Amino acid sequence: MIQPLPTVQVGNTALRVSQLGMGTAPIGNLYGGVTDAQAIETVQKSFELGIRYFDTAPLYGSGVAEMRVGMALKGIPRDQFVLQTKVGRLVREDGSIEFDYSRDGVLRSLEASLERLQMDRVDILLVHDPDVLQEEAGFRQALNEAFPALIELREQGVISALGAGMNQWEMEYEFAKHSDPNCFLLAGRYTLLEQTSLEFLDYCQKRQISIFPGGVYNSGILVTGATPGAKYNYRDAPAEIMEKTRRLQEVIAPYGVPLHVVAQHFARSHPAITGLVIGSVKPSEAEDNRAIWDAEIPSQLWADIRAAGLVEAGAPMPVG
Description:
By secondary structure, the protein is α/β, with parallel strands linked by helices.
């Protein structure tokens, strides 16, 4: 029997999510064509495995991922899962994307997402990558228009939690200091290879702001290892990252634990972290993600990584 995944509170809200979530960018054809049937089966397999937190966005396949999530979850009682989508990207009729972080853009985006999802509500709304605009302009519009609109929706009970989803922590840190978010999706900036965001995570822990790490494999190198062509931050890994990965592999090898398993367990170890968002494109990947979650890792492995100086001194280590 599959044991239920633990749930945890999102920030200071009453909302609770499973500590392992499914990212749906892959079923929006991110890495290649996916059929509706495969996408739906993957979402439903994730649900069957105890995953009750689903992250999506209009950007993923220009609305395709949202539509597929809606089809997959149709008929399941709405209170049995948590759904997170994003604002700031509007899908035009031709499938192209318009950036809009205004109040009107937020409301239009939410309305369009609900239509694609065929649902009457989402639980969490995130401002999606406002730094795609000229950085200061994106930040200001998100802070002065998008966040107040989301706060209004939260106060009205339309959503339960709000925040931002980005590949950088610096702007999220500013949003945390100057607005009232409940959570952040942070992709690639708290991983086994990179803990640059420790100050931000510590701040969020004090403020009761939840962190959901995504991109915990840094675009692939923490799955493939330091092999030719390994990817880091969506491009070929630089020499220093390849070397650090090789050193990690040398420390981990005696224990027979795959690198990506260690990477996933490390990424959930900081107390500010509420849950992981891991993408799946087929049912077997959903099964793998659940198996990784349940894996046991010896405490000495973590001690060896620490002793080798391969993580920042302030980074908490998992308990074996």
